[in-house]
Amino acid sequence: MNELLNKLRNTNRFNARDFIDNNVYDFIQFKTKESHPSVIGGVGQLKDFPIAIIANFRGTNITERIATNFGMATSTGYRSALEMLNQAKKQKLPVITFIEMSGADPSMQSENDQQSQAIANFLNAMGQYPYLNIATILSEGHSGGALAFANANYLLMLEDAIFNVASPEAAVSILKNKYSVEQLTDILPMRANQLKQIGVADFIIAQVDDKKAQSQLISDRIIEIIKDNSFEQDFVSHRFDKLKKI
After folding, report:
1. Contacts of 235 (CB under 8 A, 6+ apart)
2. Are 101 and 145 in contact (CB under 8 A)?
3. Taking a C-beta distance cutoff of 8 angstroms, is the pair 15, 215 a contact?
4. In this predicted model, what pLDDT tens digit does every residue of 153-189 receive, in sequence order?
5. What share of the chain is helix, strand, coil (3-state, %, to 5)?
6. How many other CB atoms sit within 10 Å of the CB of residue 114?
7. DSSP letter assigned to residue 93
8. Which pTM was predicted?
9. In angstroms, rounded to a whole number, what is the distance separating the alpha carbons of residues 65 and 12?
10. Are strands 95-101 and 133-142 parallel, antiparallel or unpaired?
11. Residue 157, SS3?
């Protein structure tokens, strides 16, 4: 697991910007009242389809990683994501989220700034979004912060990605070192294939090193989902029914 975590957290790992650069045309960034470098988003064209993107981003070098707090969004980041979602709602756009975070910001400052409420508000808005939303976990997604970004009609995961209520290291600490990181992966299903089996993940996408090829694989699946859901339907009930089955 330690080797996998190092791979998932590598600065050269495929990220949301790679997807935007390779597949999204006429991309225009959202402007929000509050912002945090770990949350980026905007509107653009994915082939023939207008879409909105709200993405978690942790940077591709040490300077960016410090600026983004290593992908751990603060309360301002979640409020910014909510504002982006509301802008997408006005345009009746399908929303694509991308996730690469080890957790929400654990600082006292974020707690004092009502981070838990900001996460809850965004999570609720994602669940109540009246149009299609699709979440993709690119590396790792942990804690309520990742859950908010992943509250979608369809969850995609790269085949080596992991998704859990807490990062492996945090889970070990919570359980007072009763289990090792390796043991926890057997107790808590967090790998893509495990989550597909229990209905949390809907699609697993092959992980490839070439970023252009990786972007195309993700794009092809997203476009297929958009085409399959082009008719008018109750997307809110769809999300609720999916969760009831898990």
Report:
1. 129, 130, 131, 132, 133, 153, 229
2. yes
3. no
4. 999 999 999 998 888 778 888 887 788 777 776 677 7
5. 45, 20, 35
6. 14
7. -
8. 0.93
9. 12
10. parallel
11. strand
Tokens matching residue 176: 């007072």
Note whether 85 and 126 are within 8 A (CB). yes
Per-residue model confidence (pLDDT) at position 167:
81
Phi first, then psi: what are they for 56, rounded to 5°? Answer: -85, 140
Which residues are CB-contacts of 75 (< 8 A; sequence separation ≥ 6)? 105, 110, 113, 114, 115, 117, 118
> What confidence score (pLDDT) does residue 35 get?
87
> CA 12, CA 67: separation in Å to the nearest integer?
17
pLDDT above 90 (res 105): no
Is pLDDT above 90 for 211? yes
Contact 37, 234 (CB under 8 A): no
Residue from 139, 103, 144, 162 nearest 218 by CA: 139
Number of residues assigned to the chain: 246
The first and second tokens of residue 15, run together, are 């990220």
Q: What is the set of domains in the chain, with CATH numbers?
A: 2-245 (3.90.226.10)
Structure tokens given for 198: 């229990």
Is 219 a residue whose pLDDT tops 90?
yes
pLDDT of residue 84: 97
- Residue pair 52/88 in contact (Cβ under 8 Å)? The answer is yes
- Residues 123-163 have pLDDT tens digits of 999 999 999 999 999 999 998 899 999 999 999 999 999 99
Sign of CA dihedral 126, 189, 138, 1: positive
Residues in a beta bridge with 96: 53, 134
Cα gap 73→105, rounded to integer Å: 6
